Write the structure tokens for this entry.
Amino acid sequence: MDLYQIKICDNMSCPDIIQGAEATISFSEFLGRKSLVKMRPAKTYRLPEIDIHIRNARTRNEARIMHDAREAGVRTPCIYDIDLKDSSITMEYVEGRSVKSVLDEEPGRADELCRKIGLAVAKLHSAGICHGDLTTSNMILEGDEICFIDFSMGCANAELEDIGVDLRLLERAFSSAHVGLEPSFEVLMDTYYANIQNAKQVKRKLTDIKNRARYT
Ligand SMILES: Nc1ncnc2c1ncn2[C@@H]1O[C@H](COP(=O)(O)OP(=O)(O)O)[C@@H](O)[C@H]1O
Ligand SMILES: [Mg+2]
């Protein structure tokens, strides 16, 4: 969803705030640690009692999936606090650059990074977790590890269809953001298939989804 992001405030007296389509990100400290608060502001076009229900369901879902992903061995920010009064999650601030900008600036690292992405997505899917918005802007390169963020569209107990859709979105996002890096995307998918149990079924599902899109 980073297409909608604008930096609102850029001076020293006030912290940077990033306004996304659904959430507002601000930076702070939590028990002395650099942290980030992701808050879902109220949508005035919704009935207030429905609005708070939707915002809190999404907040809980995001926190839960981040936690499940971490248990599956995928690096995600540590959650410090969840506040359902303002539908916010306070989490660890991950130092690093987005994988999107690393690939833009250092395309020579594409195979190395794509191998890591393929392995991490295989771990997520093997644990029944779909990310829901697999773009390279939702991955932060921290040292030489990739941290996955923004699980707001994610789901647990994923079915084959959800997994196929997750991969299709990744493919589309990658090909539009990283023109010229198609061979590295193949490296990503090869690593992915080598690390899941049901590669044949998933390949078939992905082909189905692409054909469906083509003929509808
Ligand atoms: N834990 C984090 N550490 C560092 N930066 C983060 C973290 N979470 C989010 N960000 C930054 O904030 C941006 C927006 O957060 P994200 O969760 O992706 O929300 P949105 O749904 O608006 O895309 C990210 O693209 C990233 O730059
Ligand atoms: Mg995002």
